[in-house]
């Protein structure tokens, strides 16, 4: 069996011509896109002072650095070696706990702030347009300025210690959560709201009995997700003197205490992974709670 | 017509639906326990984190002074303004190039970590765990490490953004590949295509738009993170932010913050337009 096509058929020739022209146009578009992309990359490479010669000359330092942070662990003296590697474990665990508390308190404060603001920012509940606009811009400001910049400013205002870290995380969390929460609120079923409004309920009553029951599990799930992100954020707050384990980490990196770097990093990574795992389980439980209803 | 119930009717109604009105005791106790634990931990946190009312009040009054001093935003001199704008350009360049390089390197890694491409469990496990480890380290920490390797400057920052994104991209890409439709791949196999053909013609056309939109999103979020890596000397506007905050040049600080806000908003706008153009067509 053959599928031979008569190439001389004018209809097919016209079709082939059309196909060729379309493909040529598409190819031109792709080429143009690629050219713009390459120009952007070249510009960015100049901007970020990419120096391949320097990179090639120094690239060996990276694996060397990583290798140097590795502790010497011998099977024969494993426990003694481990003890030497984690010589500061008590202090580090204390700082790690402080980091977790900074993240937790910051998340709670931020979540409460976001919760209070999200109703005025949501387009289906916000009462006055200008208040909605102002709330949205405010939330945008809070989440666009990086938390470490807030921390830098707060360290000067409040003094060194965990308090500026907590506030910086709280403000950033408020911005991020306010936006996510208001998106959740915008997607609710409006029928309960209409029902309550019909019975003459006030704005706050409507929110309490018609909106909150619909959104609470989603809010909790976002708050858990944010807590995990904030643990990462809190671990570097110490870089600018705002408390937590970052203080010891930056000291270890700056002073080339190589094995301390790997010890502290490993602690942070394991903690983040555990929290990642735990919050994911909790979030699944929360979401299935909602679907089971 | 009145809808009012008589008192005995109402009492009877309440008695009949007691369970529905009061709710179950178990749920109530659970709620109280969870809320109690959350609030307890919060208060414990406040007490251990050296917070005192006096400190908070003093801090906020300081903060108020700073805000007053910040107005109006002023770069100081025209030459300073030029330096700041240049640093902003550097920041955007770091974010863009770091993300693109990370995406290029993570692309093959994503296939390696995808269960439906490489079915070997050991490879899958190793690839996933190493990505998790890389992802667990913040970009700022990578920046500190790269500064030790290639010296101070934006190059180190670019490498830091690249490294920290490698883990995230590897995970996202492999998830995109795993959720791809099997049918085109089977089609390619049925006409005699090899493993590489399967990937090139069966998988890549499916995952490319998803990946492109993720890369754009990361360029957006990396613009934010690359504004701060200058704090540890890895280039960009963060260096000037940290410097002006520490020397209490508040007017310059607010100018820099405004610059960052404007840049981030512009990039948000551009990338959401581009993302819509890429995804929007296919989603319909």
Descriptive report:
The complex is a heterodimer of chains A (293) and B (284). Chain A has helices spanning 10-47, 52-58, 61-69, 78-85, 89-121, 129-144, 147-158, 162-186, 191-198, 203-235, 246-254, 258-292. With 293 residues, chain A is mainly alpha-helical. With 284 residues, chain B is mainly α. Helices cover 81% and strands 0% of the residues of chain B. Chain B has twelve helices and no strands. Chain B has helices at residues 7-16, 18-22, 25-48, 53-70, 78-113, 121-136, 139-150, 154-178, 182-190, 195-226, 238-246, 250-283. Chain B is flat, with a radius of gyration of 28 Å. Chain B starts with 6 loop residues before the first helix and ends with a helix. Chains A and B meet through helix 1, helix 2, helix 3, helix 5 and helix 6 of A and helix 3, helix 4, helix 5, helix 6 and helix 7 of B.
Largest sheet of chain B: none
Terminal CA distance of chain A: 60 Å
Query: Which CATH architecture of the largest domain in chain A would you pick?
Result: Orthogonal Bundle
Q: Count of DSSP helices of chain A?
A: 12
Task: Output the CATH class name of the largest domain in chain B.
Answer: Mainly Alpha
Mean pLDDT of chain B: 83
SSE diagram, text form:
The complex is a heterodimer of chains A (293) and B (284).
Chain A lengths: L9 H38 L4 H7 L2 H9 L8 H8 L3 H33 L7 H16 L2 H12 L3 H25 L4 H8 L4 H33 L10 H9 L3 H35 L1
Helix pairs in contact in A: 3-12, 5-6, 5-8, 5-10, 6-8, 7-8, 8-10, 9-10, 10-12, 11-12
Chain B lengths: L6 H10 L1 H5 L2 H24 L4 H18 L7 H36 L7 H16 L2 H12 L3 H25 L3 H9 L4 H32 L11 H9 L3 H34 L1
Helix pairs in contact in B: 4-12, 5-8, 5-10, 5-12, 6-8, 7-8, 8-10, 9-10, 10-12, 11-12
């Amino acid at each position: 069996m053959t599928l031979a096509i008569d190439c001389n058929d004018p209809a097919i020739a016209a079709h082939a011509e059309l196909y060729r022209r379309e493909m040529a146009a598409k190819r031109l578009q792709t080429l143009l896109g690629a050219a713009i992309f390459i120009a952007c990359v070249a510009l960015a490479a100049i901007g970020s002072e990419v120096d391949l010669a320097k990179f090639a000359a120094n690239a060996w330092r990276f694996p060397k650095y990583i290798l140097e942070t590795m502790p010497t662990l011998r099977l024969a003296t494993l426990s003694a070696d481990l003890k030497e590697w984690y010589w500061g474990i008590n202090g580090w665990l204390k700082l790690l706990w402080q980091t977790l508390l900074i993240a937790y308190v910051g998340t709670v404060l931020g979540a409460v702030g976001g919760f209070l603001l999200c109703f005025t920012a949501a387009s289906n509940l916000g009462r006055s347009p200008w208040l909605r606009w102002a709330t949205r811009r405010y939330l945008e400001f809070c989440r666009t300025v990086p938390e470490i910049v807030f921390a830098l400013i707060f360290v000067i205002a409040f003094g060194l210690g965990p308090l500026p870290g907590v506030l910086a995380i709280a403000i950033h969390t408020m911005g991020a959560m306010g936006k996510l929460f208001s998106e959740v609120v915008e997607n609710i079923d409006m029928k309960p709201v209409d029902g309550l409004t019909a019975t003459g309920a006030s704005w706050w009553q409507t929110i309490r009995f018609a909106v909150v029951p619909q959104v609470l599990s989603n809010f909790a799930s976002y708050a858990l997700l944010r807590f995990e992100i904030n643990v990462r954020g809190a671990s570097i707050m110490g870089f600018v003197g705002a408390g937590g384990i970052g203080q010891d980490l930056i000291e270890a990196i700056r002073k080339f205490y190589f094995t301390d770097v790997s010890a502290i990093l490993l602690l942070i990574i394991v903690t983040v992974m555990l929290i990642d795992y735990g919050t994911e389980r909790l979030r699944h439980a929360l979401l299935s709670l909602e679907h089971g209803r | 017509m009145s809808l009012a119930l008589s008192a005995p009717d109402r009492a009877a109604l309440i008695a009949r639906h007691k369970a529905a009105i009061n709710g179950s005791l178990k749920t109530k106790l659970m709620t109280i326990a969870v809320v109690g634990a959350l609030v307890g931990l919060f208060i414990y946190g406040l007490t251990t984190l050296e917070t005192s009312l006096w400190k908070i009040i003093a801090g906020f009054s300081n903060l108020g002074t700073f805000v007053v001093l910040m107005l109006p935003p002023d770069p100081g001199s025209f030459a300073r303004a030029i330096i700041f704008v240049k640093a902003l350009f550097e920041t955007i360049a770091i974010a863009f190039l770091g993300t693109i390089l990370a995406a290029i390197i993570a692309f093959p890694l994503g296939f390696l970590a995808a269960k439906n491409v490489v079915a070997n469990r050991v490879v899958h496990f190793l690839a996933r765990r190493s990505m998790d480890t890389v992802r667990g380290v913040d970009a700022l920490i990578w920046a500190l490490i790269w500064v030790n390797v290639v010296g101070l400057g934006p190059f180190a920052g670019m490498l830091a953004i690249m490294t920290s994104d490698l883990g995230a991209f590897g995970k996202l890409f492999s998830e995109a590949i795993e959720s791809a439709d099997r049918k085109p791949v089977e089609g390619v196999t049925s006409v005699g295509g090899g493993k590489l053909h399967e990937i090139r013609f069966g998988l890549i056309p499916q995952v490319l738009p998803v990946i492109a939109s993720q890369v754009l999103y990361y360029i957006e979020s990396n613009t934010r993170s690359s504004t701060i890596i200058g704090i540890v000397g890895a280039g960009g506007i963060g260096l000037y932010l940290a410097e002006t905050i520490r020397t209490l040049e508040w007017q310059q600080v607010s100018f820099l913050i405004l610059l960052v806000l404007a840049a981030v908003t512009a990039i948000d706008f551009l990338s959401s337009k581009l993302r819509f153009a890429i995804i929007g067509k296919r989603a319909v």
